Structure formats: structure tokens, C-alpha cells
Write the C-alpha cells for this entry.
Amino acid sequence: MLLKDKICIVTGAAQGIGRAIAEQMAADGAVVYATDRQQGTMDEWAEQVSGKYSTRVVPVYFDVTDAAAVKTALMGIHKAEGCIDALVNNAGVVINRRLGMMKRDEMEMMFRVNVIAVIEMVQLCSRLMARTGGGSIVNIASVTAVQGSPGQVAYSATKGAVIALTRSAAKELAPQGIRVNAVAPGIVKTERFAELYEQNGEKIDQRISRIALGRLGTPEDVASACAFLASDRAAYISGQILGVDGCASI
């Protein structure tokens, strides 16, 4: 019960890694506010998980790029619970294109969701955490930000920005008792993986062959890392980028 009675927020929790993070936090005893932009996508699942782990998983619907909606939601959670203990910035957009085929509107959208929205979430949530003595913020980066990846120039750039903002925010927020870390997943077998594999199967096979642990990552692998960093057991860990990639980035 790493997170017993902690109030945790997970963005982009309707599927994939985000859903696994929210469920892991619930399994570890947290009250989880699971967010998504599409109304009603998590209601049934949240009810099932709440019953399974005897806690509360509360769906909250807003677009992370809508600053006013984000503020309303976070202020409402803080008012209802009295604190926010942990935030996982998982919501993100991936558009893979070769360098010569990138479109400006797609690049701008990725930066709005993957970078600007994350900064704004950190801004507001850190102010609320500071009122109650601190908390933990976990951002989702990517191994592509460390290694680079053909066909993912713009996406890699956004995740590189996440790493930079994580390290800077950790130093700035430390005096308020707020820890900021990032998890950098490698290739994770999510719903989107099948689509990517169909497009670039040969290249993905080459990357998998370089994973020292010999398998793809799972959403649960990433979720476990996030739950640990959000917990008090990581109380002296901040400003770190934790690779969850099966030893592919070394």
C-alpha cells in the first residue's frame, strides 16, 4: 500500500499507460482522479476498479490544453479532498513522420499537449501542493528523448523538453517540499503498438533486438515506476529521469 490514502491525479487515463498507472495507484491504496478529454470514457472502468481495490477512482473530464478547464478541475479536487499528493502528467500526443514530411500544425499540437500543458499542470498543481507541505509530480518522457529515433524528430523534441522542464522544476520546487521526476519508457506494448508495428515492423524488430531484457515493456512496468516515485519511499528522489526500457538506452 505505497500510496494509502494519497490523493493522486493521472492525466490521459482512459487507455494504455495512463489507465495502468491509475489502476496501479488504486491498487496501492490511493484515491485516484483519472482524467481524460472524452466524456464518459472511464465511468464503468472507474466503478469496477474502485470496487476491486476498495478505494475511489473518480473520472474527471477536461482537455489538458484548456487552461481554464484544468484550473477548474484541479481547484475542485483540492477543495473536495483538502490536498493533492501526487500528479502524473501522462496525457500526450504521438505523431510519427519523417523529417521532410512533418506538418507545422501537427508539431504545434504535440508541443501544446506534451510540453505546454505539462508546464501549466505543474504550475497550478505545485501551488496547491505547496499549501499542504509538498507532493510528488511525475512526468512521462520517452527513451526517444535520450537516444533519438528516425521518424520521431518532433515527438522526440517534445519529450526532450519534458526532461529539461522536469530537472529545472525539481530544483525550483524543492524548497516547497515538491519532488519532480520523470519516467522515460522504451517501447511499450499498448493499443497503439499494433498500429506502429504495422507501419514500421522491421525497424521496431531491430529496436526490440537491442533490448537487453529481451521483451517489450508493458503499461504495468511503467505504472509501477510511477507509483514508486509518487510514494514516500522515494522521498529523497527528485530531478531524476528513470528509464523503463529493459536496458535499451545504455
